[in-house]
Task: structure prediction
Amino acid sequence: MLRRAFSVGFIVGMLVVGSRGQDEAHRNLQAFIARTKVGSLRPLLEVLDKANLSGSLEFSGRCESLVVQDFPEFPKFRAPATSGGSPLQTLREMFADDPAMQVTQDPDGTIRMIERGVPKDILNVWISYLPFGDGQAGGPRPIYDANIALMGILGAPEVEVFMKAHHIEWPFLVFGPVSGIFDTVPPAVPPDVPQLWGPLDHVTFSGAMDYVLKAFPGIWFYENCPRSAAKKGVVYFRFYHLEKTGSGAIVQ
Result:
């Protein structure tokens, strides 16, 4: 079990996690996303979705404004000029105007879009244990949303210690003595809804993110904003995917 219970707050209480359950957390997450400029990620996600691939997008930003409509920031990329190429070729073409962005593909097919020089120290933090549904009676329930799982990763004691020691913060994370995030599930969950089962032992932050991505295909997003003399450093993480609707697909 996580050694510390926690809650997560999104600007003026938009997101409160704990005994209210994952269903309310999911609704509030969608309200947050509806107010941001996530639509700019659609072309990138369409390339991955068409090829049944997932990936990570890692870059350095400024985080100068935490106003919902202006945060998070997204790297700029262009629409591909050609079609029919491999996903790797297509994404490299999309980022051709950003020479610092390196686009590679892991042996398992995962696409990595990583800006040269982005700090990876937090991604390399080792986490001793994450429950993610252990299947035991009275134990944590399955996870039905990638960003609920993300809260578990950010709430790991090792991550909290690292962030405090290095004077960095996730802008919407609030720790507090609220009951466990994994203890409740949305009511009447359809059987075809993706879910995350199985605890993790001795895994890096990035390894845990990749683990979640296997259950919820899309991308995990990491923006790092350097610390200055006047403010702490900021890191922002989130999972994004294309959500199929009756009229097409939207970025979630």
